[in-house]
């Protein structure tokens, strides 16, 4: 529960005022939690990404598929609801972001997922944890 | 592939298969896991959804695999990092610059879900130069490579370890040899220790005709003892020294100063302590054939008899229950083994008067002295045996104590070696320690146990067997310092229901007698349905 509150540390969140920055331990914990959750949902993630591939191969819009459509709706709603206005991305960008994060999550669900995520986070000093959106 | 190659690992994520081949290295014998060298790999993209006649396969040696691993991981990391840079690629395939004919393998992402692996130098004749990978395929490839990496990490670790293991083998071998030696010595010692018992009996029966009968059992035991000869002989040399020094008989007070430095136990030093306990040479019958000549010398030599008589008090005079006696006998027990082995070795060799063993063991001694020593030692062994038996018969209770004292006794032994005369004074010391400890214990335990007993008797009066009750009721009673109940914690549902039938006193009501401890006492109370009451301290 303590860690859950750390989400507030995301500077892009609407309620981000005054929250302290994440320290390394907290970030590390979040990474482990994200990867653990991703691992639990591994099969679903895989199915979703496979579906995405198929759909793309058939030149269809991903949101026409129920699984992907639901996910995208949920993601976009949550993002707009929780994230501050100034960082808002246009709907197309958000759409892409959602799919990208879906694929990322698949990678993080692997055995070395936490390492990949950690490296990705280190590669970008200021980061965000949209992955939680998925949950 | 070479027949000597064996598949050691096969990683099979859904869309690709990574097989690792390797030669079993001879090092495998040293480790439980197989150690491999000349690693080859074969990677096939066999996505079941894509119905191709031939799955795309690439293969190579370990170097290439490492290259591929780095490549794929770098690419994946870069791909994932895009999410943090707001560089989300379009879902649709974007046109990428094709670096044609590059020998360096590389991966490019083509849109969100498609990646192109350009094999470059990794490509083989059969395989195409580029492979298109979907996101899931890439993910599977990453998983396979990661698994391989972790597996290999283990294997290479093993490889480095085995070198250390070989180095470790030498000290291990030494220690193993040491352990074997120790075990061997103890078994021999035990056998020898049993020997005097037999001799003891025989000697008792045939006191009048000592010589012939006693030698027979000894000879039976001779073979196992031979190894000891090398170690023990030193003792014989030292024996002569203490004996001469004993004449002066320094006063007992020296003990205190000697006590602190417990010397490192040197096997060569044990025997002298045995000498001390030797006492009754003159009184005991000598069964040994070698003793014939010795008998006269021992009796005639005033030094030895004096020494023995002064020191040997313990076994005979000991009262069965006194802690002193146990310690004494304990020391004897420990020394007895040594003495017994020694005496047997010597007796075994002495009848034949073989010059070799004599040279080893007793060089410095005069022939007469030597003989005398063997006798006295033997007697000591017998004496010790008797003392031990007496003690065992007398007090079983004291055994526990004596066990606790063994530490002390070993210390004593050392002290004995330092100064034999100190023996008598040092032995009582540990015993006094013991007794004080016991007193302390009783001080601390007694009061609380009294409370326990009081609580138990209280509930025995109150608690009646309950026919409808199936299980044992369990309560935790927290008792105040004044003996009243501070809290009653029922453990389990039934205990809660039956609380009013237990007859437990009200809180604050005097219950057991007061006790001195600062903290409150916690008693576990068990009430069985059959009316049995048990209490434990917590």
Automatic annotation (TrEMBL), chain A:
Pfam family, any one: DUF3038
InterPro entries according to UniProt: DUF3038 (IPR021399)
Protein name, entry field: Uncharacterized protein
UniProtKB/TrEMBL annotation, chain B:
Record carries keyword rRNA-binding: no
Region annotation (Disordered) ranges: 206-373
Bias kind Low complexity: ranges: 239-248, 289-301, 325-338
Highest taxon, organism lineage: Bacteria
Residue ranges, compositional bias (Pro residues): 249-270
Pfam families (UniProt xref): DUF4335
InterPro entries: DUF4335
Biased amino acid composition, Polar residues: 302-312, 341-363
Transmembrane segments: 169-190
Keywords: Membrane, Transmembrane, Transmembrane helix
Identification of the protein by name: DUF4335 domain-containing protein
Gene source species: Hyella patelloides LEGE 07179
């Amino acid at each position: 529960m303590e860690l859950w509150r750390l989400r507030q540390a995301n500077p892009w969140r609407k309620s981000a005022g005054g929250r302290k920055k994440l320290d390394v331990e907290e970030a590390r914990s979040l990474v482990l939690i994200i990867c653990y959750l991703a691992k639990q949902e591994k099969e679903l993630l895989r199915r979703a990404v496979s579906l995405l591939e198929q759909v793309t191969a058939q030149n269809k819009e991903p949101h026409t598929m129920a699984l992907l459509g639901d996910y995208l709706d949920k993601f976009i709603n949550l993002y707009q609801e929780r994230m501050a206005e100034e960082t808002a991305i246009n709907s197309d960008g958000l759409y892409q972001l959602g799919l990208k994060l879906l694929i990322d999550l698949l990678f993080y669900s692997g055995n070395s997922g936490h390492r990949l995520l950690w490296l990705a986070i280190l590669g970008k000093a200021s980061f965000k944890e949209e992955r939680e959106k998925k949950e | 592939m070479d027949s000597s190659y064996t598949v050691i690992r096969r990683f099979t994520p859904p869309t690709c298969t990574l097989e690792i081949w390797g030669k079993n290295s001879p090092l495998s014998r040293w480790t439980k896991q197989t150690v491999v060298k000349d690693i080859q790999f074969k990677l096939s993209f066999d996505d079941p959804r894509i119905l191709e006649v031939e799955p795309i396969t690439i293969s190579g040696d370990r170097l290439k695999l490492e290259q591929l691993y780095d490549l794929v991981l770098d690419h994946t990391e870069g791909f994932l990092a895009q999410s943090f840079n707001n560089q989300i690629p379009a879902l649709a395939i974007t046109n990428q610059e094709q670096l044609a004919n590059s020998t360096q393998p590389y991966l490019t992402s083509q849109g969100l879900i498609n990646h192109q692996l350009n094999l470059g130098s990794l490509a083989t004749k059969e395989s195409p130069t580029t492979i298109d990978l979907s996101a899931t395929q890439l993910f599977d490839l990453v998983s396979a490579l990661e698994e391989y990496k972790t597996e290999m990490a283990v294997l290479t670790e093993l490889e480095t370890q085995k070198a250390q293991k070989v180095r470790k083998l030498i000290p291990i071998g030494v220690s193993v040899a040491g352990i074997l030696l120790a075990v061997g010595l103890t078994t021999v010692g035990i056998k020898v220790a049993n020997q005097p018992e037999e001799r003891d009996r025989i000697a008792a029966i045939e006191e009048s005709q000592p010589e012939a009968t006693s030698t027979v059992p000894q000879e039976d035991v001779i073979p196992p003892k031979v190894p000891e000869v090398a170690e023990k002989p030193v003792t014989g040399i030292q024996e002569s020294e203490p004996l001469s020094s004993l004449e002066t008989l320094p006063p007992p007070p020296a003990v205190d100063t000697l006590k602190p430095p417990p010397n490192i136990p040197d096997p060569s030093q044990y025997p002298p302590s045995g000498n001390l306990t030797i006492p009754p040479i003159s009184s005991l019958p000598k069964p040994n054939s070698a003793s014939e000549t010795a008998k006269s010398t021992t009796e005639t030599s005033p030094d030895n008899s004096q020494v023995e008589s002064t020191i040997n008090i313990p076994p005979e005079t000991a009262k069965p229950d006194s802690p002193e006696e146990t310690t004494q006998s304990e020391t004897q027990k420990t020394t007895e083994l040594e003495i017994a082995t020694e005496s047997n070795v010597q007796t075994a060799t002495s009848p034949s008067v073989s010059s070799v063993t004599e040279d080893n063991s007793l060089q410095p001694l005069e022939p007469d002295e030597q003989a005398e020593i063997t006798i006295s030692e033997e007697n000591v062994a017998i004496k010790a045996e008797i003392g031990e038996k007496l003690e065992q018969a007398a007090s079983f209770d004291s055994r526990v104590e004596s066990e606790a004292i063994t530490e002390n006794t070993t210390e004593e032994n050392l002290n004995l070696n330092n100064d034999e005369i100190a023996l008598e004074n040092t032995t009582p010391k540990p015993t006094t320690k013991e007794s004080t400890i016991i007193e302390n214990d009783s001080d601390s335990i007694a009061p609380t146990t009294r409370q326990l007993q009081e609580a138990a008797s209280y509930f025995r009066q109150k608690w009646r067997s309950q026919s409808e009750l199936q299980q044992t009721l369990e309560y935790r009673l927290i008792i105040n310092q004044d003996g009243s109940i501070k809290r009653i914690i029922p453990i389990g549902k039934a205990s809660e229901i039956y609380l009013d039938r237990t007859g437990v006193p009200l809180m604050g009501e005097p219950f057991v007698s007061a006790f001195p401890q600062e903290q409150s006492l916690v008693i576990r109370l068990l009430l069985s349905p059959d009316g049995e009451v048990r209490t434990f301290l917590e």
